[in-house]
Design brief:
Blueprint lengths: L14 H9 L3 E6 L13 H19 L4 E3 L23 H18 L3 E6 L4 H17 L3 E7 L15 E4 L24 H10 L6 H19 L2
Parallel strand pairs: 1-2, 1-3, 3-4, 4-5
Helix pairs in contact: 2-5, 3-4
Length: about 230
């Protein structure tokens, strides 16, 4: 991916093209994320780059299946309650602001004539997710447009869902062990932010943004320590 999160989205289309997509009952794929610290080696936009990449790939498959879809301009003003909030460059929004902004965007999609929107999220902060889900619940009561949150069936209970929520779009459990084969030590289990998984994902879709220099710096530090140890 070249890094342009507006590529192949509504932002590059005319209103005439959008009107036709709505009349064709296209599904709106809506990437959401946040701008926040992702270590010294990944960009602040990691979450939204990955959400956009997934929506883009899903759109290609839907098109192959003959199902009309369109990507909404990515929304990257999310909530941050965790430690990354304290780092320079992280740009958190208040929960009530996120709710109102998402509702307004969904209202615009509704006004354009779209009837279905599916969220693609790659930011796991609870405040962020709670805000979007509340916006979805309120929008579904207010508009004809129906919005849906993707959730793997085997994660429903753990993430606080009953499975009966009318805004959930359940996904078949993914056999992730087939994709990730690296060995892990116990100390590596807390890998939910800027760790091996997100680094590997960014190397796959946006390698130009991964700062490999920082990893080489660590290697130089290790080499220095080895040299110091054996020179004693």
């Amino acid at each position: 991916m070249e890094g342009n999160i507006f590529k192949d989205t509504m932002a590059e289309m005319t209103w005439v093209e959008i009107e036709k997509l709505a009349k064709d009952d296209a599904i709106v794929l809506f990437p959401v994320g946040v701008i926040e610290e992702h270590g010294p080696h990944l960009p602040l936009g990691t979450d939204i780059y990955l959400a956009y990449a997934q929506a883009h790939d899903v759109r290609e498959v839907l098109n192959e299946m003959g199902i009309s879809s369109v990507i909404a301009p990515p929304f990257y003003w999310g909530g941050i309650k965790a430690i990354p909030k304290e780092f320079p460059g992280s740009l958190p929004c208040r929960k009530e602001v996120i709710i109102e902004m998402i509702k307004d965007i969904l209202g615009g999609l509704d006004n354009a004539g779209f009837t279905k929107a599916v969220f693609f999220n790659n930011h796991g902060d609870g405040e962020h997710i709670e805000a979007i889900l509340e916006a979805v619940r309120q929008a579904n009561r207010q508009y004809t447009l129906r919005s849906y949150w993707l959730e793997y069936e085997d994660d429903l209970e753990n993430d606080g869902f009953t499975g009966k929520e009318d805004y959930l779009l359940p996904l078949t459990p993914a056999a992730l062990e087939d994709f990730y084969t690296c060995e892990k030590e116990l100390r590596d289990e807390f890998d939910i932010h800027a760790g091996a998984l997100e680094t590997a994902a960014m190397r796959e879709c946006c390698p130009q943004f991964v700062k490999e220099l920082h990893m080489k710096t660590i290697d130089r530090m290790i080499a220095r320590d080895i040299a110091d140890y054996f020179s004693r």
